[in-house]
Design a protein that fits this description.
binds zinc ion; alpha+beta; 87 residues; globular
């Protein structure tokens, strides 16, 4: 297995833990960049979880701008864990 394929495989297994630094690259270009990820606990996501949905969403906080509105209900595909992407 080549090094790059191995790295890509490991990266695809990344699990975002609450408080992890991630890079957002989703549908709002103005907000692309670093954020702190926590599980989204809005009423919609909590209800989806209660009904057994595996569709985990994230709540993203800008650690450098406390006045920025957090991003809610962000799909896992829209973020990359910084620990693997930032080295
Ligand atoms: Zn939500």
């Amino acid at each position: 297995m080549s090094e790059s394929l191995f790295s890509a495989l490991i990266r695809s297994l990344d699990i975002v833990e609450p408080g992890d630094l991630v890079i957002y690259h989703g549908s709002i270009p103005a907000r692309h960049g670093f954020h702190i990820a926590t599980p989204c606990v809005c009423p919609h996501c909590l209800l989806a979880g209660e009904y057994g949905s595996e569709d985990l969403r994230y709540h993203l906080i800008d650690p450098w701008d406390e006045t920025a509105r957090p991003l809610r209900c962000v799909r896992p595909e829209s973020i990359t864990l910084c620990a693997s992407a930032c080295d």
